[in-house]
Amino acid sequence: MKNRRNFSQNDSKYEIRLAGSGGQGMILAGIILAEAAILDGRHAAQSQSYGPEARGGNSVSEVILSGREIDYPRALELDLLVALTQEACDRNLPDLKTEGLVVVDSDLVQRVLWGKVASLPFRQIAQGVGEGRAINMAALGAIVSFCPSVSRSSLANVMGKRLPSAKLAANLMAFDEALKLADNLRGSLKSVENKEESEI
Amino acid sequence: MRKVTRKQVLLQGSEACVKGALMAGCHFFAGYPITPASEIMEVMARELPKAGGVFIQMEDEIGSMGAVIGASLAGAKSMTATSGPGFSLMQENIGFAIMTEVPCVIVDVMRVGPSQGLPTQPSQGDVMQARWGTHGDHPTIALAPSSVHEFLELTVQAFNLSERYRTPVIVLVDEVVAHMREGVIVPAKGDIEVEERSQPTVPPEWYIPYGDPGTGVPPMPAFGEGYRYHVTGLCHDVQGYPTTRKDEAESLISRLFWKISKDLHRLQWLDSFYTEDALITVIAYGFVARAALPAVKEAREKGLKVGLVKLKVLWPFMSQTVTKVLEKSQKVLVPELNIGQISREVKRVNQGRCEVVTINKVDGTLITPREILKTLEEIHP
Amino acid sequence: MKETAELVHKYLRSTKKFPHIWCAGCGNGIFMQALIRAIDRVGYSKDEVVLVSGIGCSSRLPVYVDFNTVHTTHGRALTFATGIKLAKPRLKVITIMGDGDAIAIGGNHLIHAARRNVEIASFIINNQIYGMTGGQCSPTTPLGVKTTSCPYGNLEPNFDICRVVEAAGAAFVARSTVYHTRLLDRLIGKALKKKGFAMVEVVSQCVTYGGRYLGLDSPAEMMKWQKDNSIPVEKARELGEAELEGKIVTGVLVDRERPTYHEE
Hints:
Number of domains of chain B: 2
Strand order of the largest sheet of chain A: 2-3-1-4-5-6
Helix content of chain B: 25-40%
Oligomer: heterotrimer
Distance between the termini of chain A: 35 Å
CATH architecture of chain A: 3-Layer(aba) Sandwich
Number of strands of chain B: 16
Order of helices and strands of chain A: EHEEEHEEHHHH
CATH superfamily of the largest domain in chain B: Thiamin diphosphate (ThDP)-binding fold, Pyr/PP domains
Shape of chain B: globular
CATH superfamily of chain A: Pyruvate-ferredoxin oxidoreductase, PFOR, domain III
Number of helices of chain B: 12
Number of strands of chain A: 6
Distance between the termini of chain B: 40 Å
Strand content of chain A: 15-25%
Structural class of chain B: alpha/beta
CATH topology of the largest domain in chain B: Rossmann fold
Structural class of chain A: alpha/beta
Largest interface: B-C, 42 and 37 residues
CATH class of the largest domain in chain B: Alpha Beta
Strand content of chain B: 15-25%
Radius of gyration of chain A: 16 Å
């Protein structure tokens, strides 16, 4: 992968929320994201909220990235929302900032009432690599493309540390495939953004 | 280009707590599963045996607290971690540890109460329980970390204070701080000062287990080291034997208070921001202080003269610090995730000097920077 | 057996302000003597012995003897003892509890201590009543007996302490009365030496409250009752349930090898 931008120049806060249902691995994805950002020399805070269920229910993981020390480690206005269920999408959309981006699974989330949307087939990608549970790592792949604050190499590095070694290869495949699709999509997103701006 | 020069590691609050405990020399942990404190027990179960310590899961929190006190009597630095319902169960034995002067650390990860409440949601509702949860008049030491890094640091300090004053020390942490992960620069072993309980310098036959050596804190040998003495939760004389003599009971209870209150000036642990010329000062602790800081910064950008004092010690109440704040400010804002617990103390110390405004929440959600900013704008003169 | 005076001088705390709190004729003193004799016989040093008690008349025992002693909260002696033993395994940890202390308020700790098989020698002084608080019924008060808290007669069947502890997994379970002092000496000695959790139920008498409610007037009569109602376990094995009704089965009830908590 080529280094698309120099992320460390970005000093400001970047807020990400990963939302899905319990068991989709949202919290682990958040932890990996935060740890990778720290490897990249940035400040990171990860937090979560969850219900009493071990499976199902709403699961939300937040990651705040910044070049400076983080005063308030929770999201105030999301830059990026990843939603892997319809309910997660509906619930969390109001917390996006106006120019924020929502990334959804194209199968699991059908309806997104938002301008800037990236709909990607994370579940299909995961099933395609023979590891249905890699849906969370596929979502992380897309984040690399959209988020200015985290690098592919650090994420892959942390995945190697945090994931069971037998599952690593499949997860990395899903991760990279989603990253590639997201990169292709990024251009068209920009135009949407520009169009909106010009309309305003 | 800004770079973080020292190396950070991503730690969950609970992991940082365990790291702090191990650095402080914790050798014994007894606990019972409870949301949202179980992670501390789980990390302890994994890490403590590797460090040569002893971990045990007890049958309930009453038993956990008993085992912790027993282990400390045998010479081990010991701790437990729990949440509201378990903290309630521990209260009788915490009182025993205060009365018998047995050092130990209790971490209470606060969730919304009363009763089962909201087990996975943050709260600061146990501040008064930490102070008055066990019966009778007694002193209390309680610390409140606001970040993962502080959770590590204050767990070390909890052990130090508990050894220095021979008393249980409570770490009151809200659910968010225990569960969130932040980059932490873990201090090197040598950078941390670790205190140990004082040991008798006299032979056993000269040892007076509950006498006052001048500091208010009697030396404490471990069981099995030749200093045989009696430990009882009854009022006791200097030899440790039960007494009903009023002079002996009075001098025991007063010494329990005095050994800590004489050092109040050493227990004013705070961080302050923009307080020099502040007309309004926010007094906050725990996670809420994290919400207050960006609110205060933004208010400053808008030209409001506001400041923040973050309390790290909740008990004994930092009245010296708070008095200074109250003397300098026109108004004080106390945001808390409870119906108003530390604000009562602020009002008590205030004695009508300032206007004390509060923000209170008990619905399981956090107080946001926006809410604090809004109130600051509303009350700014 | 050594001269009593010699043992008194060696083991009682000369600095403690005697007299003790027990009533004349109470069984606690008999047990204390037996315990001291057993510790002396086993040969433990005073420094390595830790005596832990809960709350109640018998739990006042530790203050009188010159060991490392802790008088804990009601029902919790075994939890403190567990902490002490695990933190410093070389210590010889002994607990002394009453019947209310050990099996009412502390019942859960008792079964879990037995299950874990932590090496603790525990003694439950069973006088079938709450003596210190004024004669209320306990989980071992016989059915139908009137006490201050069951003035119309006790409605609740009582616990068989030994069976509970056996079922929970203790390595050693035994029973004696304070009348059978030689047996008591022997059983305490065995419990002290046992690797694992050992429990001896010591049937005793409360002369102030128990006697009044059980219809026995004097300490002597109460101890005679212990004598007349006891059956050695060897003999009891030949008898049926009906014949054992209301009897005190004495001796070693369980003695088995199980890995202790430390060995696991």
